[in-house]
Amino acid sequence: MASTETLKQTPLHDVHRALGARMTPFAGFEMPLQYSGILNEHLAVRQAAGLFDVSHMGEFFVRGPRAFDFVQHLVTNDAARLTDGRAMYTVMCRPDGGIVDDLLVYRLGPEEYMLVVNAANIEKDFAWMQEHNPMGATLADASDEVALLAIQGPRAHDIVQAVTGVAAGDIKFYHFVQLEAGTFPGCDRVILSHTGYTGEPGFELYARPEDAPRLWHLLMEAGAPHGLQPAGLGARDTLRLEAGYCLYGNDLTEETNPLEAGLGWLVKFDKGPFVGREALLAVREQGPARRLIGFVVEERGLPRPGYPILDGTGEAVGIVTSGSQSPVLGRGIGLGYVPNDPAFTTPGTRLGVSARGRTLPAVVTRPPFHKK
């Protein structure tokens, strides 16, 4: 783990310190773990709105006449479905089908795309893209030149509209607009994207680093009457898990493929060649050997990543990849891999989680958990 002296800081670092945030190392950055408390921040997002600093994420730009060809070759989803102002979620895979990363692709124009990748994978991903660019598209790592804020929750639309005058509710899911300078007073170009990682409606805002503090304060001021609260990585993780969203490094790795991870809908085999296509075709033909399932624990106790998943006889058959307490359910919830057999994957099936000498009874449950 990097020492405090070597950790990077986001453009909002001073803001977090002034708010009394509890900071933590994450993906090479010093990031806010929580402000008022994970439970309070989690419920604020579910009931009103929360504001996150996610400027640690990576942003790459792909430009030139072969930009589209490069994106199609790199990722499993079909970039031909994108038009200007639309985004898509996808994965990029190794030739053996393992997931290099999950990412967002934004089409800014016919010859310009923005790819948003996980913070811990910035260097690895950019090197991978450079190595898999036979068409010679122009690639640029702009991660240090872009700040990213996320405002999430049922009141997010009202707050954004109060600041900008933009009819935020008219921006469709996985669409975005490039706002003119001054739309957020005092801020230059801002990309307003109807995307998120919490299971609630909301937006992600890409801006210049020097504009991030002003953007934060504008949103917090407008959001105060709506119950907006700053939220840290702790709530971000419990929110994404309640929604059933995968986390790279836990549920997704280079040793997992999208078909076993429940992300087969991201793999468009009919679009033509892409890295990993042949291997994934073989997985589809044979069927994945394992599946990622969701489960809810029935007794007090928390499933932790790495805990064994047990069958009805107490035999270990799988492994927990993500686990936590659900603030909405008041129970432990988790994701994990088990053999691809209806005896383990069917919703309602009773399994167990081995937790430090105890067996926690669990029920296979299809996410999202918070909407049950």
Characterization of this structure:
There is one protein chain. By secondary structure, the chain is an alpha+beta fold. It folds into three domains: 4-55 and 146-242, Probable tRNA modification gtpase trme, domain 1 (Gyrase A, domain 2, 2-Layer Sandwich); 58-144, Alpha-Beta Plaits, CATH 3.30.70.1400; 289-372, Beta Barrel (Elongation Factor Tu (Ef-tu), domain 3). It is 22% helix and 32% strand. The protein contains nine helices and 20 strands. Strands 11-12-13-10-4-14 form a six-stranded mixed sheet, sandwiched between helices. A six-stranded antiparallel β-barrel has the order 15-18-17-16-19-20. Strand 7 (99-109) and strand 8 (112-117) form a beta hairpin. The chain is globular, with a radius of gyration of 21 Å. The two termini are 38 Å apart.
Task: Name the descriptors.
single chain; 372 residues; alpha+beta; Gyrase A, domain 2; Alpha-Beta Plaits; Elongation Factor Tu (Ef-tu), domain 3; 3 domains; six-stranded mixed beta sheet; six-stranded antiparallel beta barrel; 9 helices; 22% helix
